[in-house]
Specification:
The chain is built from three helices and 16 strands. With 207 residues, it is mainly β. It has a single domain, classed as Calycin beta-barrel core domain (Lipocalin).
Amino acid sequence: MANRVRFQLTSQARIIRGTGRWIAILLVGVLAGGCASDAPAPMHTVTGFDLQRYLGEWHQVAAIPAWFQSDCATNTRANYALGDDGLMEVLNSCETADGSINQAEARARFLAYDSHGKLEVTFVEVLGAWVWPAAGDYWIIGLDTDYQWSVVGEPSREFAWVLARSQTLDTQTLRNIRQILEREAYDSCALLLTTPDQQGRLCDVAK
């Protein structure tokens, strides 16, 4: 979208790490930037999405390295549950290099119809209220028919995740996922496999 406005967060987040959990304290200021002349092509999300089937535990199989996951060494997981308020409750966790567990709690909601895999996620909670202006996009661009794996992206193509119910995926499945990512204008070589049994760039493993 040629006239997409880029937003820049001007505040700073202070992360307090307690026993196995993160508490994010964020004072949010949003500064509108200029119009993007080199905006990427529109991203397509899955349709016929069933949230109930998507709930439960997922393992991160591959991802574009992200600064907010820099402490994660292995066993990165996400647990999704439906809250009483209709929001999807998110609990992300991972093991650090010293064996400790980091956790981050969030909430997700649909951006459009609940049958489309287009959601946003916020990890920022202030005085018991979730701050949606600080949310990031969570767009499901690929999904196994049996909900055994999922490909999550966002319109800037700076981040992407491959999630699965199991800790590893076979080579043919990884090839299919690579095709989905490249169809949506991702560089599949930017994704690294992150499980103990699978390492390297996705484009090399899924040749």
